[in-house]
Design goal:
Structural class: alpha/beta
CATH class: Alpha Beta
Strand order of the largest sheet: 2-1-4-3-5
Main location: cytoplasm
Oligomer: single chain
Helix content: 40-55%
Subcellular location: Cytoplasm
Enzyme class: transferase
Distance between the termini: 27 Å
Pfam families: SPOUT_MTase (PF02590)
CATH architecture: 3-Layer(aba) Sandwich
CATH superfamily: SPOUT methyltransferase, trefoil knot domain
Number of strands: 5
CATH topology: Alpha/beta knot
Subunit structure: Homodimer.
Order of helices and strands: EHEHEHEHEH
Length: 157
């Protein structure tokens, strides 16, 4: 199974980039991970929030194929423990999902068209985090999930 991590905007803070790179490097032992960073919209001052979400949706949906299993990282999504997330990933792999795409939207969330395309929504926490930090938290949790699946000692219960 291939995993794609699709984000609107680039990770800018060096300490976050370093942390993400650390987990991406570790993940190479378990899965093929593709990170796609879409450019943030430019000249958005004249656009409403809904117009921005619509334009971002066009960019997001262009990167998703009809057979991809799409999971939005969304505050209204299901909340899973690390063990439950590992079971979720494992179930998708066993269920012959060829590519699972995890998506982080822009600052105003997702357009209705992206919600309509999504197979699932996942919340990383009831708290709100910056989109930059979500990238680090997600890559760490993905790594943790694979160590749980493989029975490796990274995760402590």
């Amino acid at each position: 199974m291939k995993i794609t991590f699709l984000t609107v905007g680039k990770t800018e803070d060096a300490y976050l980039k370093e942390g993400i790179e650390k987990y991406v490097k570790r993940l190479k032992h378990y899965t093929k991970l593709l990170i796609i960073e879409l450019d943030e919209l430019k000249n958005t001052k004249a656009l409403t929030q809904d117009q921005q979400k619509t334009k971002e949706a066009e960019l997001i949906l262009k990167k998703i194929s009809p057979v991809d299993h799409v999971v939005l990282l969304d505050e209204k999504g299901m909340e899973l423990s690390s063990q439950q997330f590992a079971a979720y990933i494992d179930k998708k792999a066993i269920g012959s999902v060829a590519n699972i795409v995890f998506v982080v939207g822009g600052p105003y969330g997702f357009d209705a068209s992206v919600y309509a395309r999504a197979n699932d929504k996942l919340s990383l926490s009831a708290m709100t985090f910056s989109h930059q930090m979500v990238r680090l938290f997600f890559t760490e949790q993905l790594y943790r999930a694979f160590t749980i699946i493989k029975g490796e000692p990274y995760h402590h219960q």
